[in-house]
Amino acid sequence: MSTEPGHRTADHTADAAAESARGAEAPAADAAAREAILAGDTSLGIELGSTRIKAVLVGPDCTPLASGGHAWENRFEDRVWTYSLEDVWSGLQACYADLLADAESRHGVRPSTFGSLGVSAMMHGYLAFDAAGDQLVPFRTWRNTSTGPAAAELSELLGCNIPLRWSIAHLRQAMLDREAHVPDVDFLTTLAGYVHWRLTGERVLGVGDASGMFPIDSATGGYDAGLLEAFDRLAADQLGGRGVADLLPSVLAAGTDAGRLTEEGARLLDPSGALAAGIPLCPPEGDAGTGMVATNSVAPRTGNVSAGTSIFAMVVLERPLARVHHEVDLVTTPAGDPVAMVHCNNGASELAAWADVFGQFAAALGRPAEPDEAYAALFAAALDGEADAGGLLAYNYLSGEPITGLEEGRPLIVRTPGSALSLPNLMRAQIYGVFGTLSLGLRVLAAEDVAIDAMFAHGGLFRTAGVAQRFLAAATGAPIAVGETAGEGGAWGIAVLAAYARHATRTPGGTGAGSSPAGEQGHDGGRASLGEFLDRRVFAGTALDVVEPVPADVDGYTAYLERYSAGLAVERAATESLR
């Protein structure tokens, strides 16, 4: 077994800040919050991220009341990035227990029920089960890049980009590789869908997460029927006469009733037996969808960038793209609206590793620094770097990167003899490197004239004010907004979706079409949409810090990106030479 170097600290800035806030800013017990917790007038969101499982409890107005967390690691076993299901449940239980302890510390009470609950997780990948509910092969996460032949075949067959990490690409690759488990597959799902299934017994998935399993038809809100038929013609003989739709979770839009916590599910989350069954759950979603909610970017012409272990941009489309691009995934918002997604496997992990090295250096000098202090100093140094990072290049490729056609990664620092090696330039190059591959993908959307009125950013990278946000503005050439809740992350986003479902009107049959908050009217006189709910109930009055691109930074980053593109040949050579 091996683990990815530096992986544990990828979301470090957000987690450390959250822990600091819990200790230093924990408010005195608030009577209203205490009453809401005791009455179950709350919503709980849990997200299984790449390096941390997080939980956030929110009150009736979606203000966070308590939080919990648990660090975990992916494993690289038999050349597959994976997590064990045992680690999923031990991690969820530890995270939930941490949340209870925080609620008691802050408010003097431990919740035993909630008004609603939601589960989110890293998107895509491959979790396959047989008819008895037994797992057939280890979980293959989004980070695996072994599905190239299947993704290429399906992209051509279906006429849309099928990324390497999508569940349908994993299934088809297993067929191409003649894996023995394929005839026994009875159910495919994502990590969020799996946890939801075990908690409720329901085999369902939020439309945003489902769009990373198989293409969605935004007109119907379900899997594209024509593309399902095309896949079945290709592979039905390997599925025992069943259609692929028989294996996939049912698709639900935001606001839909997605089942209730069973007694078994309650014990899985809380072995102590204190948690009550019967709590309603919202549709399980992926981290991309919760990121859109957490940044209030679910309306057409809005977008967001999420930076953590991976980095991705989501832009809600007002019209279809003119053609297929391998750099762009077509997914949906949690409400089912079409979204262009530029997803890069490698985000802030390598930057976090360098921050850890400098923290060790400070300790070696006898001046140990807290992680937040080290980050603040290094980010501040980056501001003093030359606009083009002094000729330095940083490649953050810990794993393969589909956008640049690399099946594996090798983190590199590259410079010419005439470059200026300094701490400010090194750190600016590292932060630029987090955005490098993302910029290459966003160029595709720019060439398609995709309009973006507002771009929001969230994730630990943006908690140090005025640095990564400024450099992202240079990388995109657009203003970047960071809100007060930017550091709350996807666990808060899924808690908000749980609150939305709690306030929504369920339609007969559970399709979710037109679901909306009870008692609120939309602009057309009907019930409010998810976007209207966010505007009115969650983000009303929220302050935004908006940073405009600095012309000198834009010019410097442009020069950096040109060298970055040319230097990809060095990265490719490293993957071929260094094993």
User: How are strands sequenced across the largest beta sheet?
Assistant: 16-17-15-14-20-21-22
Under CATH, the topology of the largest domain can be stated as Nucleotidyltransferase, domain 5
Shape: globular
Quote the average pLDDT: 89
**Corresponding CATH architecture of the largest domain:** 2-Layer Sandwich
Number of strands: 22
Assign a percent range to the helix content. Answer: 25-40%
**Strand proportion:** 15-25%
SS-derived structural category: alpha/beta
Given as residue ranges, the uncertain stretches (5+ residues, pLDDT < 50) are 1-29, 505-519
Describe this structure in words.
Belongs to the FGGY kinase family. Keywords: Carbohydrate metabolism, Kinase, Transferase, Xylose metabolism. This is FGGY-family carbohydrate kinase. Helix content is 38%, strand content 16%. The protein is of the alpha/beta class. The chain folds into two domains: 189 residues, 2-Layer Sandwich (Nucleotidyltransferase, domain 5); 221 residues, ATPase, nucleotide binding domain (Nucleotidyltransferase, domain 5, 2-Layer Sandwich). The strands form seven sheets. Strands 16-17-15-14-20-21-22 form a seven-stranded mixed sheet, sandwiched between helices. A hairpin with a 3-residue loop joins strand 1 and strand 2. Helix 12 packs across helix 13.
